[in-house]
Design a protein that fits this description.
Elements: E1 9-11, H1 19-24, E2 29-32, H2 47-59, E3 62-66, H3 71-81, E4 84-86, H4 95-104, E5 111-115, H5 118-128, E6 131-135, H6 144-167
Parallel strand pairs: 1-6, 2-3, 2-5, 3-4, 5-6
């Protein structure tokens, strides 16, 4: 029933993802949500985010930020990062996931998406047919509409974890 919202992977943080292994598997492009995926909501790029994007470039990845925020927010975050970006993306609409791949010169077979919300980030990536990784939100301070969605996400994640236990051979 909730399968359409289940992520391909669910990890503690963007910063623990083994990007080198993903590159070895053939991925060449990474699309990121910004708020609570890379930094706390509304924050500028910090040292950890800068280091991550330097690492991605050194591995050989193309990258793109895709955000439902307006351009001033996305542009401010991207000032130090200097990557591709799409603002006012209307996630979970597929249109701007495709636009991000076009900007990076990648396609569905070699692009992955990383975000912190099930009903916008993961659902949009799944609708597009893209491999996706859900990360736990960096910081608890969020806008009211996101707080309300988090309650529903807890229900979906409960069923996601239950389904994982049934399919894990261990």
């Amino acid at each position: 029933m909730f399968d359409m919202f289940f992520p391909d992977e669910y990890v503690a943080s963007t910063y623990v993802i083994p990007f080198e292994k993903l590159y070895e598997k053939g991925f060449r492009g990474v699309i990121f949500d910004i708020d609570n995926t890379l930094v706390p909501h509304g924050a500028p790029a910090d040292a950890r985010a800068l280091k991550l994007f330097e690492r991605l470039r050194s591995i050989g990845f193309e990258s793109c930020l895709i955000s439902n925020n307006q351009e001033p927010r996305v542009k401010m975050f991207n000032e130090k990062i200097q990557t591709n970006y799409v603002f006012n993306a209307h996630k979970p609409s597929r249109k701007n996931y495709r636009k991000a791949m076009e900007m990076m010169g990648t396609d569905l077979s070699n692009t992955l998406f990383i975000g912190d919300q099930l009903f916008t980030d993961v659902y949009g990536a799944k609708r597009t047919g893209m491999y996706n990784i859900l990360v736990k939100p960096i910081h608890p301070k969020e806008e009211i509409q996101i707080i309300l969605k988090r309650y529903l996400e807890k229900i979906v994640l409960h069923f996601y974890k239950k389904s994982k236990k049934r399919t894990d051979p261990s």
